[in-house]
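The records we work with from here on pair a chain with its fold. Taken together, the tokens spell out the fold as the letters spell out the chain. To see the layout at work, look at the sequence and tokens printed below.
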Amino acid sequence: MEKKWCWRCQMEVPMLNEEEFAIAYKLYAEGAEIDRPLEMQIRFKSLLDYYRKLTGEKEKNPNAIMHHRVRDYGPDCPECKKPLRTPIARFCAACGFGK
């Protein structure tokens, strides 16, 4: 786990490495399989608890956890130090570096 800027959340958040994400993804899938109408925080309680124990952050939206994966982001911009939006991005969407 490492803290990085999330362009969706517009703030620095804990990002999961591949081992941590594999566990989170399994817990997310288990919550998604529940076939009855429940609030998201009940359906995905195991995932939300796992993320809180791992990061110390209390996330309420399980979908946000699924996009907090280090591998999905590119390297840090040499200008503003925020990660590029994807591993193949050629310019920084945050500051425009590389355009």
About this structure: The chain has one domain: 2-72.
